[in-house]
Amino acid sequence: MEKILILGGGYGGLRITQRLLSHDLPNDVSITIVDRLPYHCLKTEYYALAAGTESDSALRVAFPSDSRVNVVYGSVKEIDLESKQVYLEDENAASLTYDYLVIGLGCVDRYHGVPGADKFTCSIQSMDNTRKTYQVLNNVKPNGKVAIVGGGLSGVEIAAELRESRSDLTIQIYDRGESILSPYPEKLRKYVREWFTNRSVDLIHKANITKVEPNKLYNHDEEIELDAIVWTAGIQANPIVQALPVEKDPMGRVHLTKYHAIPNYENAYVVGDCASLPFAPSAQLAEAQGDQIAMIISSIIKGQSLPDKLPKMKLKGTLGSLGKKHGFGQMGGTTLIGRVPRVLKSGVLWMYKNHLG
């Protein structure tokens, strides 16, 4: 019996499972998914759950129901690449062994050494943290004040969604650049800035958050009192991955071979936010990488040779939302603003939820 162990049921882990099941694997191959929750979560929509505009159940997708798939519920404590064993936090659980390992444990917030940021801000990096953030944001007193630290895609989407959810709030976005969404074209950035300005969302550019205290942050050492602070100012690899004795980049992501494997551990693969790749982390990238990893594992199990060079992963672009009616995007070099990108994003989400597998 050949055992494939997939750590994390996120976009990459789920995609690999789906593709392996469709690759006509031999009967003596089993797939085990380890995840803390009994369903796949739509992380790209966590901002809506946090803002209170989507329900918890709307962000759940069932894992594949197949006799070849076993789901183990728990949190990973340690990965031993030498002995091919994975230990869970549950001390009563036996260690899991594998012939092929896929690490897709995702990311955590990156606090850039800002004192208090890890203790006194809200997060949307996991379903558990997003649920807590929902409670905090929706319990903010009437006419309260909320700060979003980070003007990237996540910060912009949660600020916009929160504005539609809570028209009474004062909402501020603190971004260290000269404009929010700095990697995008100026036409797109201008549209989003104007959208926020017209809806009384304050944009604080060239911010430098030096400290966070309970209900306070310090921008250039100036104290600002707040009712809630949401941190969206960067990510880093899961601490379990950062602890691995392998070569990693400054974000703690693992450097990989051309076949997405860990050097010197050719049976261990890394997918998604924990993989050091020349692209910005995204669900789309995790799925594209997952397609290739599934093909590689399937080929090895079947005794087939691997191609000398894998095809280039083609990413279609990015779509972002500004509430339920407006959005923005970058698709194949074309900038999209207004209602069209929002409709496209809703369509992509519907397709994903209803046509998995």
How does CATH name the architecture of the largest domain? 3-Layer(bba) Sandwich
Q: Tell me, what's the shape? A: globular
CATH superfamily descriptor of the largest domain: FAD/NAD(P)-binding domain
Helix fraction, binned, reads 25-40%
Strand content: 25-35%
Which structural class do the helices and strands define? alpha/beta
Write the layout of secondary structure elements.
Elements lengths: L1 E6 L3 H11 L7 E7 L4 E2 L4 H6 L8 E2 L7 E5 L2 E5 L4 E4 L7 E2 L2 E4 L3 E3 L7 H4 L6 H12 L6 E5 L3 H13 L4 E5 L11 H13 L2 E4 L4 E5 L2 E4 L2 E4 L2 E4 L3 E3 L1 H4 L18 E2 L2 E6 L12 H19 L15 E6 L3 E6 L2 E5 H16 L3
Helix pairs in contact: 1-8
Pfam family, one: Pyr_redox_2
InterPro entries: FAD/NAD-bd_sf, FAD/NAD-binding_dom, NADH-Q_oxidoreductase
Family: Belongs to the NADH dehydrogenase family.
Structure in words:
- Keywords: FAD, Flavoprotein, Oxidoreductase.
- Residues 3-285 form the FAD/NAD(P)-binding domain.
- Belongs to the NADH dehydrogenase family.
- Pfam families: Pyr_redox_2.
- By secondary structure, the chain is α/β, with parallel strands linked by helices.
- It folds into 2 domains: 2-36 and 74-108 and 235-315, FAD/NAD(P)-binding domain (3-Layer(bba) Sandwich), CATH 3.50.50.60; 111-233, FAD/NAD(P)-binding domain (3-Layer(bba) Sandwich).
- It has 9 helices and 23 strands.
- It has helices at residues 11-21, 46-51, 117-120, 127-138, 153-165, 186-198, 239-242, 283-301, 339-354; strands spanning 2-7, 29-35, 40-41, 60-61, 69-73, 76-80, 85-88, 96-97, 100-103, 107-109, 145-149, 170-174, 201-204, 209-213, 216-219, 222-225, 228-231, 235-237, 261-262, 265-270, 317-322, 326-331, 334-338.
- The protein has a 6-stranded mixed β-sheet with strand order 5-2-1-9-20-19, with helices on one face. The protein has a 4-stranded parallel β-sheet with strand order 13-12-11-17.
- Helix 1 (11-21) packs parallel to helix 8.
- The radius of gyration is 21 Å and the shape is globular.
